[in-house]
Amino acid sequence: MIELLLLFVGTALVNNFVLVRFLGICPFLGGSKKVEISLGMGGATTFVMALSAIAAWFIQNYILEPFGVSRFLQYVAFILVISCLVQLVEIILKKISPALYDALGIFLPLITTNCAILGLALYIPIKNYSLIESAVFGIGAGVGFTLALTIMAGIREELEFSDIPAAFQGAGVTLLTAGILSMVFLGFAGLIAM
Amino acid sequence: MKIWAEFIKGLWKENPVFRQLMGMCPTLAVTNAAINGLAMGLATLFVLLCSNVIVALIKHLIPDKVRIPSYIIIIATFVTIADLFLAAFFPEIQRVLGLFIPLIVVNCIILGRAEAFASKNNVKFALIDALGMGIGFTWALTLLGIIRELLGMGTVFGLQVMGTNFTPWIIFILPPGAFLTLGVLLGIINTFSNKKTTKTSCH
Fold first, then answer.
1. Beta carbons of B179 and A179 less than 8 Å apart
2. Number of C-alpha atoms within 13 angstroms, CB side, residue B152?
3. In angstroms, what CA-CA distances link B35 with B32, B92, B141, B150?
4. Which residues of chain B does A13 touch, with a Cβ-Cβ cutoff of 8 Å?
5. pLDDT for the residue A88
6. Minimum Cα–Cα distance from B193: chain A residue
7. How far is A44 from chain B (nearest CA, A)?
8. Is B107 in a helix, a strand, or coil?
9. How much is the average pLDDT of A164-175?
10. pLDDT of residue A114
11. Is B185 on the interface with A (CB under 8 A)?
12. With contact defined as beta carbons under 8 Å apart, do B126 and B118 qualify?
C-alpha cells in the first residue's frame, strides 16, 4: 500500500509529467486562462490516462509479449488503441452521462494527440509495472497534469493585469513562468528517493 | 521560384519551433546537449520526409473519413524504423533520447504537415516542404542545445569552450533551463520581427 502511495506522489509531484518530464507541453502552453476549464481538461485527461495505462498493460502482457512482436509493433499498437479508446470514451460518456459529456466533451478529441498519453503507455513496459501499479501511475500522471495546468491557469488570470513587454506576451511569458514553476517542482525531488 | 519558396519558408518564416511553437515536448526535453538536439532534429526530419512523401503518393487511395488514423499508422511505421536504426547504429543516442523517439508519432509538426500540406500537394512539393520544415526544426533544436550546453556545462558538442574559471550554470541542463532558454529566445526573436509569436499552433 505504502509503495502505491509513494508511486502516486512520485508521479504527480516529483516527476511531474508536464514540468519535469516535458510530456503534454502543447495543452499546457496553449491552455486556458480559466481555472474551471483547466480542471475539466485535467479531469478528462486523467480519465483517459488511467484507462490507457490499464489498456497498455493488457496489450503489452497479453498480446505483444506472447507473440514476441513488442520491438516492432509497440508504437503502432499503442497509438491505435489510444485513439480508439478516446473515441470509445466519448461514445460511452455521451450515452450514459450527457452532463459529464457536455463538461468534458470538447476536450476529448484533442487528447489523442497529447503526447503525455502515449508517453504514459510507453513507460509501463519500461518500468515493468503490475496492473495495479499501472493504474496508480496513470491516475498520478493525470493528477500531476491537472495540477500543472490549473496552477498555470491561475497565474495566467493574474498575468492579464500585468505589464508585459510586447515581445514576451503570450507564449514567451508562459515559458518563463513555466521555468520558475519547474524549479519549484524540482524542490519536490527530496521528497522521495526514486 | 515556387520550389525555393516552399523550401525556405520552414527555415524562418514558418519555422515550426520559433514561429509556430509546434513539437514543444522534444524541443524542451532533449536539448540539454547540442548533439541530442541535432539527433532529435534529424530523426524527426527523416520521419517527416518519409511520411510526407508517402501521404502525397497515396492520398487518393485513403478514404477521407479514416485519413487521420491512416496518417498516424504511416508515421508510426517510420518512427519504428528510425528507432530501430538508431538502436542499431547509435545505441548511445537512442538511450539518451529514450522515450522521445517513439513520441515523434504524436509530434504535431508531422501530422500537421501531412494534413495541411502533403494531402493537398504532389510528391515533389511534399518532399521540399518536409525538407524545409525538418531542417527548420533541426536547426532550432541544435541552437537550443548549443545554448543550454554552453551555459550548463561550458562545452559545445562535447568540446570545452568556456575557460577553466567558468562556473557552469547547472540549472540550464535541468528541466527549468529548457523553459527559460526557449522563453528568452522567443522574446528576442519577437523583438526583431514584425510578426509576433504568441501562441502555439498545436493543442
1. yes
2. 23
3. 9, 11, 10, 12
4. none
5. 84
6. A167
7. 14
8. coil
9. 90
10. 82
11. no
12. yes
pTM: predicted TM-score of the whole model, two decimal places: 0.92
Owner of C-alpha cell 460511452: A92
Q: Does A106 touch chain B (CB under 8 A)?
A: no
Asked casually if ipTM beats, i.e. exceeds, 0.95, the reply is: no
Query: Which of B111, B107, B17 has the alpha carbon at shortest distance from B69?
Result: B111
Q: What is the arithmetic mean of pLDDT over B13-41?
A: 93
Residues 6+ positions from A4 with CB-CB distance below 8 Å: A132, A133, A136
Among A residues 31-70, those touching chain B with beta carbons less than 8 Å apart? none
* More confident site: A96 or A60: A60
Per-residue pLDDT at B181 exceeds 80: yes
Cβ-based contacts of B175 with chain A (< 8 Å): 19-20, 22, 182, 186
Q: Cα dist. A67→A61, A62, A73, A80, B80 in Å?
A: 10, 9, 10, 18, 18
Is B44 an 8 Å CB contact of chain A?
A: no
A164 Cβ under 8 Å from any chain B Cβ: no
Backbone phi and psi for residue B160, each to the nearest 5 degrees, phi listed first: -65, 125
Which positions in chain A touch B183 (Cβ < 8 Å)?
168, 171-176, 178-179
Tens-digit pLDDT profile for residues B72-118:
999 999 999 999 999 999 999 999 998 999 999 988 899 989 999 99
Determine, for residues A172 and B21 on separate chains, whether the beta-carbon distance falls below 8 Å: no
Q: Please check whether residue A4 touches B, CB under 8 A.
A: no
Report whether B94 contacts B35 (CB < 8 A): no
Alpha-carbon span B120 to B98, nearest angstrom: 33
Q: Tell me whether residues A79 and B107 touch, CB distance under 8 A.
A: no
**Could you tell me the pLDDT band of residue A194, with boundaries at 50, 70 and 90?**
low
Give contacts of A21 with chain B, Cβ < 8 Å. 29
**pLDDT at residue A23 is higher than 90:** yes
Measured distance CA(B168)–CA(B177) in Å, rounded = 12
